[in-house]
Specification:
The protein is α+β, with helices and mostly antiparallel strands. It has 3 helices and 7 strands, in the order E-H-E-E-E-H-E-E-H-E.
Length: 150
């Protein structure tokens, strides 16, 4: 039975860097700044208030390419094949498969290449782990990370 990390949070405006790179993200502030949920890139799902669940490639961490070790820990979900506006929505995010650790890249081009690979891997994982199989997220405070059995 798979386990998921689940985070509920309201989408906040960011610095628009993902959009500039061609990969817009829904940004959710994390209460956990110490890292009990390991930093990295994950495959998972987001749940919208209307019940819609969408596949996503999700980054958790301090964004080392741009902020080094000093950045604020943030969850950034790039929703696959989505082009709407999620600002102000409270989402549930299921992190299902840890794809890789966060890395600092030497250039935007190197980061874009990695993001394309992450999106492909997240698409593969979510196709093998459909939204209908996700566990109920339960209740939690905004920005709290919870472990939930599938």
């Amino acid at each position: 039975m798979p386990e998921y990390f689940v985070v509920r949070g309201t989408v906040e405006p960011g610095d628009q860097r993902g959009r500039e790179l061609g990969f817009p993200t829904a940004n959710i502030a994390l209460r956990d700044q110490d890292g009990s949920l390991g930093d990295g890139v994950w495959a998972g799902w987001i749940g919208r208030p209307d019940g819609t669940r969408l596949p996503a490639a999700i980054s958790v961490g301090r964004r080392p390419t741009y902020y080094g070790a000093d950045g604020y820990r943030l969850l950034e979900a790039h929703v696959l094949d989505f082009s709407g506006d999620l600002y102000g929505e409270t989402l549930v995010v299921w992190l299902g498969s840890h794809l890789r650790a966060q890395e600092k890249y030497n250039s935007a081009e190197d980061l874009i290449t990695a993001l394309k690979n992450d999106i492909a891997a997240a698409g593969q994982w979510t196709s093998e782990h459909p939204a209908a199989s996700l566990p109920e997220p339960g209740e939690s405070g905004l920005g709290e990370v919870r472990r939930v059995a599938g």
